[in-house]
Amino acid sequence: MPQREQTAEQSVRSSLRERAVADAERDSKSLFAALFLRDRVGDRFEATVSGIGAPGVFVQVDRPFVDGLVRVGNLERDRGEVFQLDTSGVKLVGQRTGFTLTVGDRVVVEVIDSSVQRRKIEFAFVMRLSEGTGKNER
């Protein structure tokens, strides 16, 4: 039976390798997503708001299954109002109209940039798809 110290070292090394593999997998997925969408600038997709942070609204597109960002600066410019993160951290609120984007909202986004080098996809907000009412909000 291996000694306790040896087992602890092997556990640490295994955990580090597992993290490195997960990082490499995430990086390769981001690379292929950026490659796939680089020729699709201007295309629109349905997506789900997956997170909200200082840089903006993170979205996950249904098909193709990719993640990207709607920058808060672009959202403010396009909608003509300042947005602030609410205290719960899951909602952006427009200061003029009260328009909100919340984690879980269904939206339509347009590809505005796909950088293979940075492995990032940037979207512009087009509209929120209202749940259950059949109405769209711009």
Written overview of the protein:
- The protein is an alpha+beta fold.
- The chain is built from two helices and nine strands; from the N terminus they run αβββαββββββ.
- The strands form two sheets. A five-stranded mixed beta barrel has the order 1-2-3-8-7. Strands 4-5-6 form a three-stranded antiparallel beta sheet, with helices on one face.
- A hairpin with a 5-residue loop joins β5 and β6.
- The C terminus is likely disordered.
What would the keywords be for this entry?
2 helices; 3-stranded antiparallel sheet; 138 residues; alpha+beta; 5-stranded mixed beta barrel; single chain; elongated; disordered C terminus
Tell how many strands the DSSP assignment holds.
Answer: 9
Largest sheet: 5 strands, mixed, barrel
Shape: elongated
In order across it, which strands form the biggest sheet? Answer: 1-2-3-8-7
What number is the mean pLDDT?
A: 86
Question: In brief, what are we looking at here?
Answer:
The chain has 2 helices and 9 strands. It has 138 residues and is an alpha+beta fold.
Helices, strands, pairings?
Elements: H1 4-37, E1 44-53, E2 56-61, E3 66-71, H2 72-79, E4 83-85, E5 91-94, E6 100-102, E7 106-115, E8 120-129, E9 136-137
Parallel strand pairs: 3-8
Antiparallel strand pairs: 1-2, 1-7, 2-3, 4-5, 5-6, 7-8, 8-9
